[in-house]
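Why does residue order matter? Because the sequence determines the fold. Keep that principle in mind as you read this record.
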Amino acid sequence: MTVMEGVHLRGGPCNGERPEPLPGTTFPPDLDGITVMDHSAGVGHFYAMTEESVLDAGVRRRILVFRRTVPRAAVVAR
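Structure:
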C-alpha cells in the first residue's frame, strides 16, 4: 500500500483546507473520509474520499469532497 502524502478538502465550509495528520502519524491508506469538527457550532462536516488528486508544492494530495454536516452527537470515533 502507498502512503497518502496529504489531503485537500473541496466544497462545503472547509473548502480549500489541507488538514494534516497528527504529528508522527500518516493518513491510513484505506481512508474513506474524514469529519472536520466545528466545536463552536456543535457540528461536524463530513468529507468523502475521491480518486482525484492534486500536486501542491511537491505533495500529492487526495481530494475529499463535502457530503454533509452532522450534529456533534452523530459523530462517532472509530
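Strands lie at 6-10, 33-38, 43-56, 59-71.
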